[in-house]
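User: Could you go from structure to sequence for me? I need the amino acid at each position, not a summary. Structure tokens:
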């Protein structure tokens, strides 16, 4: 029996610790129920003799070749790298006569980013989206008349959609406005008729990374195109961006430039300076939780060459779009503000349900009464933290920010207050500070409390929203006086009142000026309970032994 007791104790300890950390992990997770939508397209349109010539193909008289590859993947977010199956096809385009095409182009964009395009005009080979300075190749292929294409695109409220059509030895672009909903456009194009013939086909695997960006840290980006890759280090900016139809705080990493590349695509190659662009947008919700992110890579090169024997034209576009999003619909943004936490820029949004969203972590949000433009309601006290540091701010309905200093009371004593013919136990709190302040004291009693400040010998009630209780601490926000009274048993009020104080009794030590937020309290209590149980179990075991 004694031999079985030690393994039993070990299992007990393991089970108790596992249950505590399981609760902690689940409550801290902001990346559950996410979906990964990934798509990758390469599109090369080559006419005549390219810079490398047509490898293995001898016809130099205006022959048009079109190379396209794609890889798509949609699944539940796992955080692990996965392989996506892709395919590549090389077409030879046979040219005909010029024909006028008239027809409608239907464009539908959903809030989740599903883009559907139906064109009555044939020979569509690319769909390119531009939004907020980000360029996305969202589809590449060869579509005949009345083809319907469904793909994914990130659109930051509005943007443009460019449809690229084959026109024999050249390309024709049609650019349309892009926004949520269903839209229809009429177009008329004169195009050289082309007939595609597939002359080569292959399959491949593409690795899809699912790791989230590191908040407030540079990003290392890479795009592999054919036999080469382009790399860049991008830095962040704070902004607001649309997520599931709502404007939320966001961090944006963006980098662009030119790279000298020598790319081979089976039968032919493209070389020269290629333009590249990397963009990552990470979205944040209530209390700074991560809602998801979008990552886009884009590379393009277009040029022509005039020679004695023949002319050539080539157009290369490659793109990779990854959208990791959930099904959360954030509350409506009411007030946006920009603050700095120890020099780090932070965006804070107060929402329609009085919560706070931020690019940093929000540890505390509380409505406070601050008079602005003749009104006092609608301001919010927030505590935000990033990189191990925190600051308090008040954000008013107009978006004005007020820096709040956390102070330690100089002295806290117990006293009695005479009010409306009754005596109430109270704490007299003395502070010495300027500007907007925040302080806390340990509660004297576990009952209702009202806070007053002394102004010219008269007690004036603080608005009841400007003080609250957190984990046994009375937290007070004010544009300061020197003396405050926390009165127990009195009814809190939002109006001014007058009273006198009685003699002071026993003095107490000043409480600390640490942050009133305490998200780890349940974990600490759980650990203490585990320690007590384990110590008791060991004592019983030793006694039996």
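Assistant: Here is the amino acid at each position, in order:
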């Amino acid at each position: 029996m004694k031999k079985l007791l030690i393994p039993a104790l070990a299992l007990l300890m393991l089970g108790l610790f596992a249950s505590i950390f399981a609760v902690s992990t689940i409550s801290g997770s902001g990346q559950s129920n996410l979906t990964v939508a990934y798509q990758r397209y390469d599109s090369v349109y080559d006419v005549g003799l390219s810079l490398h010539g047509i490898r293995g193909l001898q016809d130099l008289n205006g022959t048009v070749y079109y190379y396209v590859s794609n890889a798509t993947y949609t699944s539940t977010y796992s955080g692990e790298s996965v392989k996506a199956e892709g395919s590549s096809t090389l077409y030879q385009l046979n040219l005909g006569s010029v024909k006028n095409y008239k027809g409608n182009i239907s464009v539908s964009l959903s809030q989740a980013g599903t883009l559907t395009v139906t064109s009555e005009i044939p020979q569509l080979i690319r769909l390119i989206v531009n939004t907020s300075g980000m360029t996305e190749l969202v589809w590449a292929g060869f579509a005949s008349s009345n083809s319907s294409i469904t793909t994914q695109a990130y659109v930051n409220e509005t943007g443009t959609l460019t449809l690229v059509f084959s026109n024999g030895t050249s390309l024709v672009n049609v650019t349309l406005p892009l926004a949520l909903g269903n839209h229809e456009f009429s177009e008329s194009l004169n195009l050289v008729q082309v007939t595609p013939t597939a002359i080569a086909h292959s399959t491949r695997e593409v690795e899809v990374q699912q790791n989230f960006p590191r908040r407030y840290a540079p990003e290392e980006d890479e795009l592999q195109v054919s036999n080469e890759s382009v790399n860049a280090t991008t830095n962040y900016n704070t902004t607001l961006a649309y997520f599931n139809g709502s404007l939320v705080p966001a961090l944006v990493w963006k980098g662009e430039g030119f790279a000298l590349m020598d790319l081979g695509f089976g039968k032919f190659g493209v070389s020269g300076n290629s333009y590249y662009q990397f963009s990552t947008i990470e979205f944040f919700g209530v209390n700074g939780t991560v809602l998801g992110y979008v990552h886009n890579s884009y590379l393009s090169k277009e040029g022509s060459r005039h020679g004695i024997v023949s002319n050539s034209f080539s157009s290369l576009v490659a793109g990779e779009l990854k959208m990791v999003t959930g099904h959360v619909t954030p509350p409506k943004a009411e007030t946006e503000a920009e603050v700095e936490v120890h020099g780090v820029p932070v965006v804070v949004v107060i929402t329609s349900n009085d919560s706070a969203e931020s690019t940093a972590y929000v540890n505390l949000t509380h409505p406070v009464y601050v008079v602005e433009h003749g009104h006092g309601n609608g301001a919010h006290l927030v505590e935000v933290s990033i990189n191990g540091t925190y600051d308090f701010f008040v954000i008013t309905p107009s978006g004005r920010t007020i820096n709040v200093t956390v102070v330690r009371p100089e002295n806290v004593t117990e006293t009695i207050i005479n009010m409306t013919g009754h005596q109430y136990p109270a704490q007299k709190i003395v502070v010495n500070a300027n500007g907007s302040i925040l302080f806390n004291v340990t509660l004297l009693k576990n009952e209702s409390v009202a806070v007053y400040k002394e102004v010219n010998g008269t007690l004036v009630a603080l608005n009841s929203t400007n003080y609250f209780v957190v984990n046994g601490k009375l937290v007070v926000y004010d544009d300061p006086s020197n003396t405050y009274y926390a009165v127990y048993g009195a009814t809190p009020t939002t109006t001014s009142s007058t009273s006198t104080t009685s003699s002071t009794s026993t003095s107490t030590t000043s409480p600390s000026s640490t942050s009133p937020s305490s998200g780890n309290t349940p974990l600490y209590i759980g650990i203490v309970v585990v320690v007590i149980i384990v110590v008791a179990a060991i004592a019983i075991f030793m006694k039996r032994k």
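One structural detail worth keeping in mind: The two ends are 11 Å apart (CA to CA).
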